[in-house]
């Protein structure tokens, strides 16, 4: 069986199917707000869309690799980021119900001015830009070595085909196809887990007892993830755009359900890494396990990557389009919206040809936006404009401290992997919160 031919077949067939099934957006509301037949997404459509748009190729690759490195503790640690759904769901529910806000941009503009909103827009534009190449590079890695011709062709074809159905329906397409992709993901994950647990010497007990619950072996990441969950979701428009589509109650229910089910999906996918660890495998856990089980399971894992990457990519295109067209009010029409999608697809693909390294969006960019923590936690309490800038800029500085590994060891009270991540976030969030509150106290 020629694996490469089957892989190409999966990409092309799934993309063509999504294009055929996607609704055609004929109005700005359909394109930017996912209104379909004059109805907003219901609870389960929104829940499925939230989960699959966050279970991107990069994240499930990381989950499997963390399972390989730390056992089930690694999977649970990474799943800690899914607290983000609950935090965003509760806070945005209150902002909509008690503040009357219709978007994050409206909230920031009304409280801290247009400058604050523009700075925030730059941060989320960078986030969306990174999402394109970091996800497509994972797809490319299944077709060939980084820098090889098959690697580049896979990325280009996958990006173009995903862009095609995103252009057709905008956010309506994104949410509609997300539901299909979530169903496919669930079925494929069950197939993989069934195969793994069919092995005689591998059991649920072995999974449960894998890893050590210590800071050195996974807990640094868990606590860092939980801390970042109070700022991380607000710089991800893929998530926040979906928080303003349906009624506040429907949205809150969807976000809370997605928090639990999304975390469960990540933990279950990390079992692939736990199995790889038990078999003494090394390298990319998902790839190695796929090879060990043969062509069929390798193709199933490959299809999961395609499904999850496509859902994130079409959501990224939709969110960037909405950012420019609606949030920044540069042209709220279908032509400009579709042009914006094409622009981010092209710009986001350029780093692929520069051999960019895949940065973990949940570590570095997650730290750079910790300055948003007090902005949203204390959203009900009026604060001077300077509070916003002090907090956000301080968060960016701590992000660079993490990038350059500049936090002194004397300020890190645990050791091992992700210790620098944890303590950079602890000190960073503390500093951001104090600097946010000081001008407020002075003004009193």
Describe this structure in words.
This protein is mainly alpha-helical and 444 residues long. 74% of the residues lie in helices and 0% in strands. The chain has 21 helices and no strands. It has helices spanning 3-21, 28-33, 43-54, 57-70, 72-79, 83-99, 104-112, 114-141, 149-169, 171-197, 204-208, 219-228, 237-240, 248-278, 285-293, 295-327, 334-349, 361-368, 372-377, 385-403, 419-443. The mean pLDDT is 92. This is Sodium:solute symporter. Its main location: membrane. It is found in: Membrane. Keywords: Membrane, Transmembrane, Transmembrane helix. It comes from Dokdonia genika.
* Intertermini distance: 73 Å
Estimate percent helicity: over 70%
Low-confidence stretches: none
Cα-atom radius of gyration: 21 Å
β-strand percent reads: under 5%
Strand/helix succession: HHHHHHHHHHHHHHHHHHHHH
Q: Name the structural class.
A: mainly alpha
Shape: globular
Compute the average pLDDT: 92
For the sheet with most strands, the description reads: none
How many H/I helical runs? 21
Number of strands: 0
